[in-house]
Amino acid sequence: MAFTLSEIMAARRQQTQAQLQAQRGNRTAVEVDEYSTNPTQAFTFYNINQGRFQPPQVHMVDPMPHDSPKPPGYTRFVCISDTHSRTDSIQMPYGDVFIHAGDFTELGLPSEVKKFNDWLG
């Protein structure tokens, strides 16, 4: 499935308008991406012109040092992926929400799952 640049820009304008309408004071409603139930379509849509097109809801940030303090009143998300059973050397920062986005084992062995679970604990 291919999208034209005008379709991409129309979707971007729609999302930007929805975000602006959703803002109330310092609170912002987080919209569910329309492609969240169809990963193949999402990949196709967001992969087009990847070098020039940044989805409007994606904001690149610089990583923080693992030992930086968390400002009061903020929620810290700690996100990692693709550890492949190599968690021994990871220095994890304190966080309120931990997200491991997949591939935590090398081969999917029960012993790797147990090791990962022990590491999480």
Automatic annotation (TrEMBL):
InterPro entries documented for this protein: Metallo-depent_PP-like, UPF0046_metallophosphoest
The organism's place on the tree of life at top rank: Eukaryota
Database matches in Gene3D superfamilies: 3.60.21.10
Protein name, as recorded: Metallophosphoesterase domain containing 1
